[in-house]
Automatic annotation (TrEMBL):
SUPFAM superfamilies to which the protein is assigned, alphabetical: P-loop containing nucleoside triphosphate hydrolases
Enzyme Commission number, as recorded: 3.6.3.-
Class of enzymatic activity (EC top level): hydrolase
One Gene Ontology molecular-function label: ATP binding
Keywords of the record: ATP-binding, Hydrolase, Nucleotide-binding
Keyword Lipid biosynthesis: no
Domain ABC transporter residues, every copy: 9-237
Signal peptide per UniProt: none
Stated name of the protein: ABC transporter ATP-binding protein YxlF
SMART domains in UniProt: AAA (SM00382)
Length: 318
């Protein structure tokens, strides 16, 4: 039975220790019904550990996971979940179709429906032509597409995808997301991890950022932008010669009547502008009055990329 009011997933204080390493340090979040949630985070943040815990592949040290209101270890919960793992889990000495048959049977797809489901999965992953070929000889991106087909074949109510599009070409990626959209339209709830920030921005309803085993942000892209970098545009102008002194330009509304931008000796001027239609013209005019000619200009809209770097920093960490 599915409780009408409970979310698809409810995670409270999830912790996972591997000896000295604390992979998850008290993670709380919900996945709403029919929602597509993107999970982001630097390498080692704990994304795969979390997905594995949700899929019952690893036992959390502490915390609770509820699936449609049921404990994770109940039979109904297990049946509701489908996993597309980061590490490929396929039989190399079987054909694509045989792999799909094996996964379909494992997930209890009724025999009479299996062929139809397999054809559907083959079509969406663009593998119909390769259905009779051994998977062991496939390219990395093709294996990943088979891996995905195997994970969604039984049309689970909750789909967990761990970096489903790594190494997948742009055309196949598009098809994969169209397939996920179709599953989502049919009511599936989707949780995916990715390092493709543009993908997360365009395809998900909500974003959770994990860092060092903790949730450090949770919201829609607009909410995350507003609470971190703000909505102002970054304007970057290159001029024809190094500045002799900072340039005085009109302030961006409020109390600031003028501000000084740029640095003597550099030919680059950067500033933030709230309303481009009102303030970009006066800014460029001030640059010209300073005696400079603009040779190049870029206006950057704040994106998930900026939010991510703002929250997790620029340093590499593993
Ligand atoms: N089986 C394991 N044994 C010991 N440590 C582990 C194990 N699995 C994960 N870890 C550790 O837990 C931390 C989180 O790893 P995890 O794979 O969850 O990160 P991730 O966010 O998925 O990273 P990536 O973006 O690289 O896939 C890392 O420090 C990792 O070394
Ligand atoms: Mg991972």
């Amino acid at each position: 039975m599915i409780y009408a009011e409970s979310p698809a997933l409810e995670i409270v204080n999830l912790r996972k220790h591997y000896r000295r390493i604390e992979a998850l340090r008290g993670v709380d979040f919900e996945l709403g019904r029919g929602e597509c949630l993107a999970f982001l985070g630097p390498n080692g943040a704990g994304k795969t550990t979390l997905i594995r815990a949700l899929a019952g592949r690893t036992r959390p040290t502490e915390g609770t996971i509820k699936v449609f209101g049921h404990p994770i270890d109940s039979i109904g919960a297990r049946q509701a979940l489908g996993l597309v793992p980061q590490d490929l889990a396929l039989y190399g000495d079987l054909t694509t179709r045989e792999n799909l048959m094996a996964f379909g049977k494992f997930h209890g797809v009724p025999r009479r429906e299996l062929k139809k489901r397999i054809d559907w999965a083959l079509q969406w992953t663009g593998l119909t032509d390769r259905a009779r070929d051994l998977v062991g000889g496939f390219s990395g991106g093709m294996k990943r597409r088979v891996n995905l087909a195997c994970g969604v074949l039984h049309q689970p109510k909750i789909i967990l995808l761990d970096e489903p599009t790594v190494g997948v070409d742009p055309q196949s990626r598009e098809r994969i997301f169209t397939m996920l959209d179709q599953l989502s339209d049919e009511g599936a709830s989707i949780l995916l991890t990715t390092h493709h920030l543009d993908e997360a921005e365009q395809r998900s309803d909500r974003i959770v950022i994990l860092d060092q085993g903790r949730v450090i942000a949770d919201g829609t892209i607009d909410e995350l932008v507003l609470s971190t970098v703000g909505h102002s545009r970054l304007v970057r102008v290159r001029v024809d010669r190094p500045l002799t002194a900072p340039v005085t330009v009109p302030g961006d509304g409020g109390q600031r009547r003028t501000v000084h931008v740029g640095e003597a000796g550099r030919d680059l001027i950067e500033t933030r502008i709230d309303d481009v239609t009102v303030n970009l013209g006066p800014f460029l005019k001030a640059v010209r009055h300073g005696g400079y000619v603009v040779s190049d200009m870029e206006v950057q809209v704040p994106s998930l990329h900026h939010v991510f770097l703002h929250l997790t920093g620029n340093e590499l960490r593993d």
